[in-house]
Amino acid sequence: MKIFSGKEISVWVDGIIKNEMQVQKTCVDLTVGKICAVTGRGRIDFSGEEFKHSPIHVLQPEKENPDDAHGWWKLSKGVYLFEFNEFIMLPENATGYIVPHARLLQSGVSHYTIVVTGTTNKISIPVNIPETGIDIKENSRVSSLLVIGQDFNRP
């Protein structure tokens, strides 16, 4: 098994905004493209036949100045769904782990580690915002993708 470098991982990630900022030594940082508030109850059952997504409301970022290229989400305490800008297309026998970005954790914000394999659709991840809340700018790096798997250069 091998831990892939950020450069190696980057070829499996589509939608990277800025390579020189997102590609790290051992990971690729993922950016937030959409934030949703959960507004109601979902349903989960054993077979999945009665599964129902929780209703959500897409939050719109607000620009501080009309000339700003990007706006801010001003989030209060609670759980939100963050959707990444990036798509992940991992090769067979590779497993990715999406973990919170260090700055997210330093702000008291957290999310669970998510395991990904193969090709993903848009990934939404539940994020826990503390009592103090947080302001998050569009396209902020909020998570990191680490990948382990077989070294494809070896027999």
- How many distinct helices? 3
| Low-confidence spans | none
CATH superfamily: Deoxyuridine triphosphatase (dUTPase)
Number of DSSP strand runs = 13
Shape: globular
Structural class call reads: mainly beta
Q: Which architecture would the CATH scheme give at its second level? A: Distorted Sandwich
* CATH class category name: Mainly Beta
Strand portion: 35-45%
Largest sheet: 9 strands, antiparallel
- At the fold tier of CATH, the topology name is Deoxyuridine 5'-Triphosphate Nucleotidohydrolase, Chain A
Following the backbone from N to C, one meets helices and strands in this order, namely EHEHEEEEEEHEEEEE
Distance between the termini: 12 Å
Count of domains: 1
Mean pLDDT, all residues: 94
The radius of gyration is: 17 Å
**Could you estimate the helical fraction of the residues in percent?**
under 10%
Question: What multimeric state do the chains show?
Answer: single chain
Explain briefly what this protein structure is:
This protein is mainly beta. The chain is built from three helices and 13 strands, in the order βαβαββββββαβββββ. It starts with a strand and ends in a 6-residue tail after the last strand.
Write the layout of secondary structure elements.
Layout: E1 2-3, H1 6-10, E2 13-14, H2 19-22, E3 28-38, E4 56-59, E5 72-75, E6 78-84, E7 87-88, E8 94-100, H3 102-106, E9 110-111, E10 114-116, E11 124-129, E12 134-137, E13 141-149
Antiparallel strand pairs: 1-13, 2-7, 3-4, 3-6, 3-13, 5-12, 6-11, 8-10, 8-13, 9-11
